[in-house]
User: Fold these one by one.
Assistant:
Number 1:
Amino acid sequence: MSMKNEEIFGVLIKDARKNKSLSQEKLAEKTGLDRTFISSIETGKKIPTLTSICKLAKGLDMKASELLKLYEEKVAEYGEDST
């Protein structure tokens, strides 16, 4: 099953958030990002900036490098769509 990169990242964020038992609202509070922006990332409609990725990682109690490593693993799992 091939997914777009932003969809893969969205699945990763949603899974990480749920594994931490965080609602979108709670993650928004922890990151300073808007809840609707987090929702848009999770659904693959928005592509986060590096700053947003760092905020998301911190809100998920991870390093940005850990988050990106998980992303790379998901890309390998789902298959990369470079379009």
Number 2:
Amino acid sequence: MDKEYDFGRGQRGAVIASPGKTRITIMLDDDIIEAFRSRADASGRGYQTMINEALRQALDPESAPVTLRGLRKVLDERLPA
């Protein structure tokens, strides 16, 4: 390497920071990753973005899908016996 380059003050890390995002390492099952990748390919979106959206929905109880158990609970509470 040329001696004209001085990396003495160099730092490791991303060149451009992503505001509001944090890089982590997470272990996910292969089938989960493949499912998100195929859905991402079909929709033309990024699989990491889709995983992020799925995690957001899981954290928000208002956006959770209605389950049969949940529907029965509401009906039992609201309908007279």
